[in-house]
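Sharing a chain and its predicted structure for anyone who wants a worked example. Both blocks are below, sequence first, tokens second.
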Amino acid sequence: MAHQTFIPVVFCASLLLMACSGAQNGAISPAAPVVTTTSNSVPFSAQATPCGTNFVRHELPHLTIGEPAGTYVYASNGSGLAVGDVDGDGNEDVVFGNIAGTTTLYLNDGQMHFTPVTTDLRDVRSLAIVDTDGDGKLEIVATQRFRRPVIGQYSNGTITFSDMPDVYSSFYAMNWQDLNADGKLDAVFGTYDTEQLQNQGLIFNERGGGGVFVYYRTSDGYRGERLNQQADALAIAFPDINHDGVKDILVGNDFNRRDMAWLASPTGWQSVEPFWQTTENTMSIDVADVFNTGTNATPP
């Protein structure tokens, strides 16, 4: 796709939550940029009421900002968000990525009050909140446009990011699952070759190119396995495609690159096209029992 420049666009983060507010309009106005590590809690509503069966939109003061010189076509892919109990208080927190602005963690006190914790992490493409090292605490994992993934540890109001060990490529999409049943979370990453080729040119391929990679957790780091050499991955899921009780890998690709799937087998990952029609230009994937068959996969 040819390089294009558009008018800068700002994306506003919002949450859809079960109705727990007396007012239907629980939105708050965007706050001024946060320059300190933490700031005062921001209430969604003055008084909470019991949860109902409807969803109410609430806005957080987070803006996903494109590059100052102009928002390129790839900026519309967003920067990701993740939900998890980062500070270990039993409440679900939310982290929002950013491109030119700051990636921000919103700590939840359980009463719909969120305290922002800002970072200097930019150029984020996807986020996950997972226990990467098996210590019982959740970390924030971020992929970035032109550098390796990082893992963030939260402690006392600050987040410290460090490079993910044994992973040296730049990725867009990621997801986490225990793929070899050893009790440790493994990671699947996918590159976004179209933007990398535009940014690096043929050097990207000369340096090894991209693709889909599995990184298995080991005792002291990760062991990588490359499944293919090309991708424009924006989504990764783990459905049980062939109903054998084992998680498989499904990757959604952008542009005119077809989605890809691999079946888990005793001899390794087997590339397949399991569906009657394979999609492309995929932006996100979810897995659910939409046919009420008792399995999270498309029936034959």
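Comments welcome. Residues 1-11, 18-47 have pLDDT under 50 and may be disordered.
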